[in-house]
Structure formats: C-alpha cells, structure tokens
Design goal:
The complex is a heterodimer of chains A (about 110) and B (about 110). Chain A is built from no helices and nine strands. In chain A, strand 3 (about 30-40) and strand 4 (about 45-50) form a beta hairpin. Chain A is mainly β and about 110 residues long. With about 110 residues, chain B is mostly beta strands. Helices cover about 0% and strands about 50% of the residues of chain B. In chain B, strand 5 and strand 6 (about 55) form a beta hairpin. Classes of the chains: A mainly beta (about 110), B mainly beta (about 110). Chains A and B meet through strand 4 of A and strand 4, strand 5, strand 9 and strand 10 of B.
Chain lengths: ~110, ~110
C-alpha cells in the first residue's frame, strides 16, 4: 500500500469548515483513498472514500487532486462532536487489510 | 438498527486464562475482521474471514484463535499463549472482501 502523510494535529473553530490534508505521493492508479475517524475509546467510523473524482456525502467532502498525489477531507461545519483522530488510508480495491497510520488529531474548539 | 456489536466492553484476564471476545453483525456482511490497537498506535490485523467456515491469519495471529460457524458471528479467543494481550480489540465487517469495512465499538482487554 502507498503510504500517507498527515499533520499530527490541527485545531478548528466550531461552526467553521475543517480542511484536513493528506499526501499520498506514491499512490497507484487503482488505489482508493479512504477516510475514517476515531473518537476516543470508540471504534473507527467510516467517513468517505474515492478513487479519482471528488466525493460528497452527509458527513464530509473528499477532494482529490488531479494527479492523485494528495487529497483533502472537508468537514463543512465542524461541531464539538467532530473532535477525533482522522485517518487517511490508501487501499487497493482487493486488499483485505486496512493500514492505519498515526492520523491527524482534530480538536474543535467552541 | 443494523450494526456491529461487541461484548463485553471491558474484559479482564487472569494469567494463563483463555478469554473469548464476541462480535456479532446484522448487516448481512460476508467478510469479518479482527484488529488489535495498542495505545497511540494504528490497527493491526489479527484474523479475517471472507466467508462462513473459512478464515485466514493476519499479521499478528499468534496467541489468538477464531471461528466462523455463522455468517453473523466471528468470536475471537485470546489464548494463554498471547503474552501481551492488553489492548483495544476491534471487530469489523464488510459486504465483501474488497468493500468498505465498518467497525464495532471495541472491547478493551486488561490483564489482572
């Protein structure tokens, strides 16, 4: 699997958009970009994934650059409950394993 | 509600004791997984199962055993051979092997 690089931490103001960057410069053409988050002492929660095109769901938007070497997860209106560790993962479609790195600790402040 | 349940939330193991962690899903998923998470670290795959009555070892299977007798259940036994069992154990499932994995709430295992 390609490796990802994320900032270790970031702060965000409640009600503002949170933009979480992820670099995956060695990603291959058939690897997907997945985002999960983990609130303290809970299981990881799936957020969104994409291959080439930008994606949006009820939780977030995923913006993937044209060269696919980086992506940004956007939480449009951050709330205090969005405080969590966010993981960016690249994964082959037929890979049975998810490889979580250190992630980004996001703290939403009132 | 559809989802994945794990029990118990906390489990205490005595030295030399085998303990079993429960994982049940009602999502009609074919594939199920067990991961281990140590403090401040990512997840490591212990075992996975793509179909009933079949399972494969992950990266850290030593000291663990599993069974998959029913589609909805994938229990994990932590045996006495696992010398460092204290960790957060996470069960996940997916519709098929390649699909998005969804996680349960986890079981925290502590050694007395």
């Amino acid at each position: 699997d390609a490796k990802t690089t994320q900032p270790p931490s970031m702060d965000c103001a409640e009600g503002r958009a949170a933009n979480l960057p992820c670099n995956h410069s060695t990603i291959s053409g058939n690897e997907y970009v997945y985002w999960y988050r983990q609130i303290h002492s809970q299981g990881p929660q799936y957020i969104i994934h994409g291959l080439k095109n930008n994606e949006t769901n009820e939780m977030a938007s995923l913006i993937i650059t044209e060269d696919r070497k980086s992506s940004t997860l956007i939480l449009p209106h951050a709330t205090l409950r969005d405080t969590a560790v966010y993981y960016c993962i690249v994964r082959y479609a037929n890979d049975y394993k998810l490889s979580f790195g250190a992630g980004t600790t996001v703290t939403v402040r009132a | 509600d559809g989802g994945i349940t794990q029990s118990p939330k906390y489990l205490f193991r005595k030295e030399g004791q085998n303990v079993t962690l429960s994982c049940e899903q009602n999502l009609n998923h074919d594939a199920m997984y067990w991961y281990r998470q140590d403090p401040g670290q990512g997840l490591r795959l212990i075992y996975y199962s793509q179909i009933v009555n079949d399972f494969q070892k992950g990266d850290i299977a030593e000291g663990y055993s599993v069974s998959r007798e029913k589609k909805e259940s994938f229990p994990l036994t932590v045996t006495s051979a696992q010398k460092n069992p204290t960790a957060f154990y996470l069960c996940a499932s997916s519709a098929a092997n390649q699909e998005t994995q969804y996680f349960g709430p986890g079981t925290r295992l502590l050694v007395l």
